[in-house]
Amino acid sequence: MTQSVSEISRVKNLNKIQMGEFEVETWYFSPYPIEYSYIDTLYICEMCLGYFPSAFVLRRHRVKCTLVHPPGNEIYRHEDISFFEIDGRRQKTYCRNLSLLSKCFLDHKTVYFDVDPFLYYVMTRR
């Protein structure tokens, strides 16, 4: 039995992601750039959701990262929980990074880069 090209390209390409103090096993394929594929752990910035091949590169990035919360408008706050509404048209990079991250856990997500027509909602804990 032979597999189609689309089936082969959808093989899970990341084992784990590290985000802050949390290391999580991924469930599904996500179309991160090829240079980040097939590494054991992908390191993700908690603030901008940028992705990096090593903890060292992430630490260097964090020194320069200016975000202290998701971009967009805080639409709800209660005690230590906040919700942000993020416009895909205005915050393309953040929303693309969010889509790539979410694809690691959602098998049927199809939109990764065309984020313009969408509003995204992100919950954070302070």
Short structural summary:
The protein has 126 residues and is an alpha+beta fold.
Describe the structure.
- This protein is α+β, with helices and mostly antiparallel strands and 126 residues long.
- It has a single domain, classed as N-acetyl transferase-like (Wheat Germ Agglutinin (Isolectin 2), domain 1, 2-Layer Sandwich), CATH 3.30.60.
- The protein is 21% helix and 27% strand.
- The strands form two sheets. The chain has a four-stranded mixed sheet with strand order 2-1-3-4. It has a three-stranded antiparallel sheet with strand order 5-6-7, with no helix packed on it.
- β1 and β2 form a beta hairpin.
- The termini are far apart.
- The N terminus is likely disordered.
- InterPro entries: Acyl_CoA_acyltransferase, HAT_MYST-type, MYST_HAT, Zf-MYST.
- One of its GO terms (molecular function) is chromatin binding.
- This is histone acetyltransferase.
- Keywords: Acetylation, Activator, Chromatin regulator, DNA damage, DNA repair, Transferase.
H/E topology pattern: HEEEEHEEHE
The end-to-end span amounts to 51 Å
Low-confidence sequence ranges: 1-5
In which order are the strands of the major sheet placed? 2-1-3-4
Query: Biggest sheet: strands, sense, closure?
Result: 4 strands, mixed
In total, how many domains does the architecture comprise? 1
Give the overall shape.
globular
Overall pLDDT level: 89
Total helices: the number is: 3
Radius of gyration: 16 Å
Number of strands: 7
GO molecular function: chromatin binding; histone acetyltransferase activity; transcription coregulator activity
Keywords: Acetylation, Activator, Chromatin regulator, DNA damage, DNA repair, Transferase
Family: Belongs to the MYST (SAS/MOZ) family.
Pfam families: MOZ_SAS (PF01853), zf-MYST (PF17772)
